[in-house]
Amino acid sequence: MIEKHATTEDLIDYLHGELPPEADAGILAHLEQCAQCTALYDDQARLSESLRSYARSSERDLPQGVVASIWDAIEREERAPSSLQRLAAFLRPAYALPIAAVLVLGAFFGYTATHRAAATTTIDAAIYLRDHASLNSTMPFGDGASEPATLRSDESASDQQWIASTGTSVVAQDQ
Amino acid sequence: MRKISSALALAALVTATAGATPQASPTALLRAAIAAPKHLSYTGEVQVLRFGTQRSEAAIYRIEHRAPDLTRRWYLAPQNLYGDSVISRGETTYSIDVKRDRVIVAQDDAIDDQVAEDDNFAVLASNYNAAFAPDEQYDGRPVRVVVLTNKYTGQTTMRLRIDAKTNLVLAKETYAANGALSTQVRFQQIRYAQQIPAGVFDVPKGMHVVQGPSRGLPSSDLQHVIAAAGFAAHGPKYLPEGFTPVEGDVVDIKGIRTLHLLYSDGIRTVSLFQNQGASDIGFESYHASSTKIENHEAKYVEDGATTLLAWSESGLHFTLVGELSLGELEKIASSVIP
To answer: ipTM > 0.85?
Structure first.
């Protein structure tokens, strides 16, 4: 637990979930006991919400003239010779054969490498069962798995990277 | 969500001290039971038994809970968890692995989602009849017994023993689709406490800190979640009566982008996972059996009340998991890509 008062910077980082876990826990414990820091935290929370509201209210469509000029530029680009057309002009018969040979060899080795890298990933059925149990625990009177998956002794920390919600941190490495 | 107002805390303290108001209807009592841990502090021992078809699991832990959201569970059994503990501080959970000298920190924003809690209770209330059974004594305390019966199947799905004075759930039994007991949770040696020292919930210092799973707030906007999957995803056209879409998420499982949709009737749930590409499902820890979903080979596992069914179709890999019979899961599976 943090004995001294939290700085404004700490509280802002805490508010946005950017502190490391230990520091995050320390701030949480401190806020529970410190009215002064809680007031500062509430101020920062209100300020963040105000900024978000302002940003939302400030969203505007682009003026029609700007949209039209963007479309004009796109059409002009399409009328100009494309990269493919320029490439075709470059591939005169004198160069075409050696370049084709290089491309064929490249495609062969590329295909082999890609298929070696894209080996099938096996997802254990237990992962689906535990993920289901995890969400099930949010239902009324749901209690999830009887044993916390994070403490199962047959798994290393790196095995625990099975779940990672979009937009949230996905870390499962020993620090 | 991390904070609770001082007014609410004061009201909670008064309620805990004076004892809860007796609830006239079973539904009102259920609502009060869900809210009880937010204003009650207590200690005790909890036994969890989960009866499987191929194996059963049991766990026993000491629990210390300080309202509204500090909880510590000290595991006494099974043997491989003895001495370990889990500290929950709101949405953050610290799993203390003594043998490995490490703390695994996990975040789950859904834990304290009041809106979702209200919605899920509404789903439960619309699909289940709640009725009082005769009052009982449990572990020396008077309890009210509430039985939840599915409105469509008429089957008893859950039985709760709720402390008549505090509204805390002291025992719970759930039943599988065939009527067999599937889980039993029993609270023993409960002692209500005015105050549990905050130090009980402190995370030990000096241990190796490991960042564990992190889950954001799942979305109830399933169309938005499906669009975010990054592939042409499908949802079931058939669901058992009372089931409704609850939430969804796009998760990364071993590097495979996977869409997870959850459907529920308030007690029973079914998850549909789907992904594409080079992945398959392993049944190393289970005895899997074969079946067919239309013309596609499928595998299934029955693990107590929970059934898992996996198959591949149209370049996508699907896995259904739910507290439903194999027959029901097969009907859902057949409707995903009719």
So the answer is: no
